[in-house]
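Session log. Operator J.P. requested a structure for one protein chain; no other inputs attached. Running the standard single-chain path with token output.
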Amino acid sequence: MCLIGFAYHCHPKYSLILIANRDEFYVRPSDLLAYWQDDPNILAGRDQLKQGTWLGINTRGQIAAVTNYRDGRKHPSGDLRSRGELTRNFLSNHQSAPHYLEQLRLEQNQFGDFNLLIGTPSSGLYYFSNTHNRGPEPLKPGIYGLSNAQLNTPWPKLNTIKEQLSQAIENEQLDVESLIGIMSDPKTAPDTQLPDTGISAPWEKTLSSIFINTETYGTRATTVLLQEHNGKTQVTEQSYDQQGKIARRTQTLCVPPL
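Structure written below.
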């Protein structure tokens, strides 16, 4: 998962409004949004290679999403654990967010650089990154953005989705199509506004768009999660390949709300 915008307790109907894009190489196989056969409490897409997920929810109301932290100047070890474990392990166990993150602090360096967003009905939403000694951090009501830098780092595409999410809430345009539309913009940022994450300038330019589509790498899924204050939660996932849309799945579940 590489781009997430979310509004937490900012709407009279919804306790959480979350929109997200997962960007990945097209050759990496993954399963579409579904309840997992080996853990039917988890509703999520799944990476077939490492068996983790980029974003999911379980029937207890726990929510988790992960992005990588991009630093092209670092050369991480090849034996690091998959970041998809971070979300899978949280969703597989009945733990509060603070307790899980307290344990994770002891093994955070076993993973590549990451940003983790998790929440439970009892503890609310938390952000944690194993970079810059950031977190764990309980999140207050507000509108947030998370990409491949720390929470709310003002990259152009992050600012855009936060602004558009705010406008959608203000104008009551919270239908799934409108929210997917926010995450479908292929426009790249001006050169003067590109971040410097240690990768080549052309690649930095390519990755600056909200929706990415190259020959080998791009946005593989857009997820919209709408959770009402009564716990009714709708999760929609639109999947893509190199040629465009390939599948859409929607699931509705009733859980304790965040």
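Operator note: The two ends are 21 Å apart (CA to CA).
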